[in-house]
Design a protein that fits this description.
Elements: H1 7-16, H2 19-29, E1 35-39, E2 52-53, E3 60-63, H3 73-76, E4 80-82, H4 89-97, E5 103-106, H5 113-121, E6 127-131, H6 135-148, E7 153-156, H7 160-163, E8 170-176, H8 189-194, H9 197-214, E9 218-228, H10 237-247, E10 250-252, E11 276-278, E12 288-294, H11 311-314, H12 320-327, E13 336-340, E14 346-350, H13 351-360, E15 366-369, E16 371-377, E17 380-383, H14 385-389, E18 400-402, H15 405-412, E19 426-432, E20 435-442, E21 447-449
Parallel strand pairs: 5-6, 5-8, 6-7, 8-9, 18-19
Antiparallel strand pairs: 1-3, 1-4, 2-3, 7-15, 9-12, 10-12, 11-12, 13-14, 14-16, 16-17, 19-20, 20-21
Length: 463
């Protein structure tokens, strides 16, 4: 069925382009969207058959058709992320603007595409805070970052204004702002139904409030990536101009962007500052807008609020023997500080990340920091699913059992899993094509499925 676009939206597009290009744009917008994925560079899954590379992202690939992602064990193992090719441009930007470790905040991070991208694109030793204000979306963010397996991440669930008193903590802030979603019209019919001029105006007000709240957290000279998945100039170029005129932000070009990629530039009359627009009739992907800005070196900085929280809840009693047992499951265990979190989970946090967590935790709702490794159960130590997913797990920490497709899907549905009679007893890592799917506990007569209940596949299996 042909998409019916709002008349006001069509009228706006006709002001951005001449008649032939506007017609071309609208025809493509009513067509079929492309499908693309980004491989996890720390888990090195195979490149899919017949995939074509995304030019601006070395780990991104277009697929010839959309498979049943839900029933692909590689997705659940964190082997890849399903992401729009246009938004993968953030990888190009990050790799060209920083060559030393940084502290980065992804402010509006759910469901996690750009956060998982940053885990791969940032220099080694960088720290990432991924935040989402909406509670249920924040849980999805935790799930996707856990599956990706990067140990140097803190996930928070806060409004941008909660960060403001913390002061200039970050070298890079990404604000992928909530927007009117015009760039998702091909993929999400609901976005078409919800669009209106009033909603665009509401989005502009919300975007400026978010930016005003978070800019004090960017260090002087730090970099802001402002992006949306919409086409209109009000949420894009006009907000960038507002950042320049009201906040003194410098607008920077992204290095080495290639003309053959077809990325469009500034569409605001009377302005020529650099911005990057992905339009579906020029590039293979959905709508995306990005601007790179620098905070003035002479910008005033606020003094951070140093409210101290109670460490009793954070560092519960745990024996040296328990820490020693859990440490044996990680590569480089001496690099971590160990803490018992409120849910009785023994967590390993890299030392630089621990220092940042100490600053954030008294003021913010921290959902996860570092690697949730294990839960003490009497004399036993129950390994957490996050340990199985982590790229910091020692490869020989647990015996591994390679599953076939039927076993893998049954495991991901949290059904009973049958193992061969010669499988070792105790905690085992079930793998698919060499990548861990999670833990089972083999007790001989059966194997207890330890996959997280809340993450299980609920759809009817196509197998």
């Amino acid at each position: 069925m042909t998409m019916t676009l709002p008349a006001d939206f069509i009228a706006h597009i006709q002001t951005l382009f001449d008649a032939p290009e506007a017609q071309s744009f609208l025809e493509v917008l009513r067509g079929v969207p492309s499908v693309s994925i980004r491989l996890n560079q720390h888990k090195t899954p195979p490149v899919p058959a017949m995939a074509e590379p995304v030019p601006w992202c070395s780990s991104g690939y277009y697929l010839p058709e959309r498979p049943s992602f839900t029933f692909d064990p590689l997705l659940h193992a964190g082997g890849y992320y399903v992401q729009e090719a246009s938004s993968m441009f953030v990888a190009w930007v990050l790799r060209h603007i920083c060559d030393t470790p940084v502290r980065m905040l992804d402010l509006c991070a759910a469901p996690g595409g750009k956060s998982t991208l940053a885990c791969d694109a940032l220099p080694a030793g960088s720290l990432l805070v991924a935040n989402e204000v909406v509670r249920n979306r924040a849980q999805v963010l935790v799930e996707n970052l856990t599956k990706w397996g990067c140990p140097d991440v803190i996930v928070t669930n806060n409004d941008p204004s909660d960060f403001t008193p913390l002061g200039a903590l970050f070298d890079i802030i990404l604000v992928d702002a909530p927007c009117s979603g015009e760039g998702m019209f091909r993929k999400d019919p609901a976005a078409v139904d919800e669009w209106s001029e009033e909603n665009v105006s509401a989005c502009v007000r919300r975007q400026r409030r978010i930016l005003a709240d978070i800019l004090p957290c960017l260090r002087p000279g730090g970099l802001l990536l402002y992006s949306t998945c919409t086409y209109n100039v009000r949420e894009n170029e006009e907000n960038v101009r507002w950042l320049r005129d009201e906040w003194g932000m410098g607008i920077l070009p992204v290095p080495e962007v290639r003309p053959e990629w077809g990325i469009a530039g500034n569409l605001l009359p009377g302005e020529d500052f650099p911005v990057y627009r992905f339009l579906p009739h020029r590039t293979r992907g959905e709508g995306f807008f990005l601007s790179l800005l620098r905070k003035p070196e002479e910008a005033e900085t606020t003094v951070p609020s140093r409210r101290r929280g109670s460490r009793k809840e954070r560092v519960q009693a745990v024996s040296k023997e328990t820490i020693a047992r859990a440490s044996a499951w990680l590569e480089e265990p001496a690099d971590y500080v160990w803490a018992m979190r409120g849910d009785a989970c023994l967590t390993a946090i890299g030392r630089p990340l621990w220092e940042l967590d100490e600053v954030l935790r008294p003021s913010l709702r921290v959902l996860q920091a570092g690697i949730p490794v294990a839960e003490p159960k009497g004399r036993d130590l129950l390994p957490r699913h996050a340990l199985a997913m982590s790229t910091a797990i020692r490869p020989d920490a647990f015996p591994r059992v390679e599953a076939d497709l039927e076993q893998a899907v049954a495991y991901l549905r949290r059904e009973a899993v049958s193992l061969s009679g010669d499988a070792p007893r105790g905690f085992l890592l079930l793998t698919w094509r060499g990548l861990p799917l999670g833990f089972v506990k083999n007790i001989g007569s059966r194997a207890n499925n330890l996959y997280p209940q809340e993450w299980r596949i609920r759809k009817t299996s196509p197998l």
